[in-house]
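Ticket reopened. Same input as before:
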Amino acid sequence: MTLKLDKVNRGPHLSTLVASSISREIAQGRLKPGDQLPTEQALATTFGVSRNVVREAIARLRSEGRIWSQQGRGAFVADATNATVLTIDYETLQRADSFRNLFELRGMLEVQIAALAATRRSDADIVAMEQALDGMRMAPYGSVAWLKNDLGFHRAVADATQNPYMGQFLVFVSERVRESILAAGNQQKSDDMARTTLGEHERILAAIKAGDAKGASAAMTRHLAGAASRVGLPGGDAEAASPTRHSRLRKAVRGRAG
Amino acid sequence: MTLKLDKVNRGPHLSTLVASSISREIAQGRLKPGDQLPTEQALATTFGVSRNVVREAIARLRSEGRIWSQQGRGAFVADATNATVLTIDYETLQRADSFRNLFELRGMLEVQIAALAATRRSDADIVAMEQALDGMRMAPYGSVAWLKNDLGFHRAVADATQNPYMGQFLVFVSERVRESILAAGNQQKSDDMARTTLGEHERILAAIKAGDAKGASAAMTRHLAGAASRVGLPGGDAEAASPTRHSRLRKAVRGRAG
DNA sequence: TCAATCAGGGTTGTATGATAACACGACAAG
DNA sequence: CTTGTCGTGTTATCATACAACCCTGATTGA
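Engineering reply: fixed in the latest deploy. New output:
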C-alpha cells in the first residue's frame, strides 16, 4: 500500500492501476492469504482516488479469485490455489526468461496436441487447417493477416483433438509468447523465412491428414525448433519438451477416419 | 440484454450477475466482436441496477480482455484471442465431458513435466516432494490435508522443471479438475486407494530422483491412469495423451509392479 | 453468575447526482 | 474543399448518502 498513484499517468484506467498495485502486494508477500485488506475508504485515500475506483479494482480482484469480501466485515486475501483465472501480468512477461519458459510450455502442449490431432481429426478440421494455410500464403510474412492465420492454423490443429480446452490453452499461451516477443523486440524477417515456415506447416498438415501421430509430433517439433531459431532462441529447448526422446516407447498410432 | 435481474437473488454481487450476463451474450453470439455495447446508463436501466454496478461489471470484463472501452466512445466486444486471462466458468465446468477433457489436458502437461523434472530437479526440489509425500502419509485419504499435499507434490514436480509457468498452469488445471470432480460428485474412497496412490507417487519420486526421464513419465502415466479409474473414468483416456502409449507396457504394469 | 437482547459504530453493497475528459458529427467561415 | 468551432453523447471519476450486515460491548433479565 505504499504506491501513490500519479494522475499524470493517464494510460490505463485508475482502477487497473489500483488492482495491479494490490495484486503486487499479494504476489510479493506483503499481503498474505487470510490478511485483511485496508478498508475501501482507506485504500481510496492512500491511492488518492475515489472509493468508486477502489471498488472497481476490488471487483476485478474478486473475480480473479485473489480476494474475497463480505459485507460488513471487509476484504481478505484468498489462498493462492483459489485463483479462478490464469493470468500473466505484463511485468512478468517482460522478464528475460519469460519468453523461453513460455515457449517451452507451448512446445510441450503443441507437440502432443499434434499427435492427438492426427488420431482424432475430422474432415472439417482438415479444411480449417487448409484455409488457414491459404491465408498465410496470401499474406506477407509477419503481417497481421499472416500472424492471424498462423495462430488460426495452430488453433485448428488443437481443435482437431476434439478437446476444447486444448485450443483455449494453446491460444492463451501462444498470445503470451507473441507478447513476450514484442516485449523483447528482437525479430527480423525475410522471404526465406516465409517459405520455410509454410513448408513446416505443410508437413504438419500432411502428417495429421495421414493420421500419422508420430510424424505429426515430429513435424511440430521441427516447426517449433525452427520458430525458436527464427526469434533468436537456441532450438534445443523445444526438443527437450518433445516426446521424441521417448521414441522407442512409442508406437505408430493407428489412424481413425481416413 | 434481455435479462432483468431479480433483487431477491442475493447470493453473488450484482456486478457479478451483470458481468456473467453480458458474458453470456458474447459467448452465445448475440454480441459479436466489434459490436458496441449499450451505454452504461442503458445497461443500468435494463438490468435495474445503478450505473456503478454496471461499471464494476465492465471493469471485470475489461480485465478479462472480453471487452475494451474508450472514454467518449463506448465499450466494444473484443476479439476472442484478446483474452488476457484464462478462465473456465462454472457453467462450462459442470458439463459432462468437461472433466474428461480437463483430465486429458492435465495428463498431457504432467507426463512431460515429469520427464523434464527428472533431468532438471535440484536437491531442494526433491526435499519438497518428500515433504509433500510425508504430508500425504499422515493425512487420511481424501481429507483436505491429503488433497493439499497431493497437489503440493505435483506442484513440486512441476517446479522441478525450473520453469515457473509449468507449476502455474498445472495448479490451475488441477484445481479445475478437482472442481469438476466435485461438480460430478461421484467419488468413493477406501484405504486401499490411499496405499495405491502413495505407491504411485513414490515411484514417480524415485524416478525423478534417479534422473530417469523415461521412468518418470511412465510412472506419471500410470499414476494418472490409476487416478482416472479411481474417479470412475476409463483409464485409457489419460494414456491417449501420454507419449508412452503402449498397450503391452500397460499390461505389464497392471498389478503394482515394483 | 450467566445468557439473551439490544444499541452503536464500522464496513461493504448500492444508488444517485455531478463534473471532467474525450469522441464525433454538424455547421459555418475561409 | 478544408478548417475551426461548437454541441451532444459517452466514458471516467468524484462525492455523498443510505441500506445491509458484522462485530463488540453494554444492558437487562433470570
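Residues 1-10, 237-258 of chain A have pLDDT under 50 and may be disordered. Chain A touches chain B through 51 residues (CB under 8 Å). Please confirm and we'll close it.
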